[in-house]
């Protein structure tokens, strides 16, 4: 099959502003095109966001000329393929309307042969204002449908099938972009169309039957060649439009989540009439264990018969301007997740169904995907018109994604059950709005079950289970939980120790960007956390106040703007580490922790562990340690401090190391050896000390464990008094010696949260760690900007932050 590419240079115009006529690259969005044409300033810089809002108040037109030969015109059909068409769009071929689209999540395949001619042809796409459409739809509804007032800056975006965070979020800029974000092309079909190929795995103990179902035009007797791994089968099409072949794999190479094994992928190729569909298939058996137990009920993914501790973060769209998405950036972000020992990513429901490359990379890296449907934090209609608009979206997206081994669950939405209790309309008429929710959600569940009966549908995140609309924010004995009491409710970090979630799919604490990040978008005169620029890049109304107030609880107040940024990231890391350490220590009660959030979609103060530039915050370096497959968390229990060995592996691991009790002069008060073998999926206490033996020195000492597992170093630090402002820290004089990409650090006094930063690209092999006297640490710079590293390297630590 040949294709005609329509990617590249298009022309962007606006009937609202007739003087605008500029080039626009497809795939791409209108904001990026306007910025490149110097019509708008960079929305991410300074306070420019407010100056570009006029763009959403315009209609926009895209056009492109493409050539068709006589041979191409002789084809039986010419299928125009459009996806991520954002959002209210009329598509014209040579002036004839061929598509009216109102849902950016739908996939379109239109036969345009009746509308084209030999030689040059013109495709035009007319985008209409979504804000006006939202207002008009709201007026026609039988009852008010509340929208995410605290997040969205444009009303009624919940009525439009568009990425919800495009109209702003409490970490996101408001850019109501328009455009086409996937490649645009025409399939030239000679005789019969190959529509899709999907697989089903049927497991029989240690062997698997892989059924490949091929969908095509209902025409018989065309030859199909199907290759799976090293097996090849020949068959022919049928008049039903569906043909199935089976492959029997007697000793399959199993796909495992990262940390539990390898990720072999079998090649699948389906060839029909010069058309080919190719996929990579991972063979794995998947079960979601929700069985009742003595606590409530489990929330545990079991893969290939082995229980998995899910560790990771929530994913938002990588950029507010989709033109800036790229395979390189997907690989960098997801690679950073794997490098931090994550094995699960949750695609959050206020964003988008991600591009194919996202899921391909997750397959390769062993990152399980919790996939939300695209509904978040608002209520949604259940009218016939809305259901009719959503049904093809859900069915098409499930069909597109179901062959990815990384996807382990389909979830109906993000926090929409809970949103019933947020808005006056629904709080005062809860029954009506609960029925409204249930009607839409049951339809989604039905469509998912019909398209993919082999994966579980989970009603909402959070929820306590099927048909349970209880308070999953505070009920920790079943289902998945969102725990926001530390950030939103102002509780102390030890509130994480008061709950035992079965699976915590959201929890988080904000930090400010690093100094290196701030330099990229804040003018020097605004280097102050309450400056206009800084506040414009803080979308949570109480964010700066919460960060600052928590400083006063735990730390001595920082001495400068630069140290405020540094300390905010120390604070964020401590908050999330407190929860993760404890929840790992109670495994298998807790089988999942996904903090909010992995990434940023523009430079901003947020809950992310990776900044917009890709730079790791301190939290991400800590996550690499506290998500390690074998980990040594400290735990307070029965009036003693303990160290546990937690082994998220399918093999036994041996731990050799030492526990140090030290004062802040670096003197060792006592030390203990560790020599222990931990069984697969094991969790054992390997050291303990009673409170009465250390409580008199709580402000003058700390505990440090240094161990090795399979040649990999494991370290952890624990302060008997978690209010670090009360500790008698000594100022650390840190010596830094750089030789190329190698950086060696030495200190005279114990130094905590020793963090390396520079203004260029790249990261470090470790950072935000404990540095002890007489124990120099050598860090490797991972990047290729050695000149910037040398000129801008900065080293921070807690004792020198005030």
Supply the key terms.
single chain, 802 residues, alpha+beta, 15 helices, 48 strands, 19% helix, 33% strand, globular
Structural write-up:
There is one protein chain. The protein is of the alpha+beta class and 802 residues long. It contains 15 helices and 48 strands. Helix 6 (384-401) packs parallel to helix 9 (430-451) and helix 13 packs parallel to helix 14. The longest helix has 25 residues, at 561-585. The mean pLDDT is 97.
Write the layout of secondary structure elements.
Layout: E1 2-5, E2 8-13, E3 21-26, E4 28-29, H1 30-36, E5 60-68, H2 70-73, E6 77-83, E7 85-86, E8 89-93, E9 96-101, E10 107-111, E11 119-127, H3 130-140, E12 167-169, E13 172-174, E14 179-180, E15 185-189, E16 194-204, E17 207-216, E18 223-228, E19 231-236, E20 242-249, E21 266-272, E22 275-281, E23 286-289, E24 300-303, E25 306-308, E26 310-315, H4 327-339, E27 344-347, H5 356-365, E28 368-372, H6 384-401, E29 407-411, H7 416-419, H8 424-427, H9 430-451, E30 457-458, E31 481-482, E32 504-506, H10 515-518, H11 532-536, H12 543-554, H13 561-585, E33 592-595, H14 618-626, E34 630-631, E35 634-637, E36 640-647, E37 653-663, E38 668-678, E39 683-690, E40 701-709, E41 712-719, E42 734-739, E43 742-747, E44 751-757, E45 763-764, E46 769-771, E47 777-782, H15 786-792, E48 794-796
Parallel strand pairs: 26-27, 26-33, 27-28, 28-29, 29-30, 31-32
Antiparallel strand pairs: 1-15, 2-3, 2-5, 4-14, 5-11, 6-10, 6-15, 7-14, 8-9, 8-11, 12-13, 16-17, 17-20, 18-19, 18-21, 21-22, 23-24, 24-25, 34-36, 35-36, 36-39, 37-38, 37-40, 40-41, 42-43, 43-47, 44-46, 44-48, 45-47
Helix pairs in contact: 4-5, 6-9, 13-14
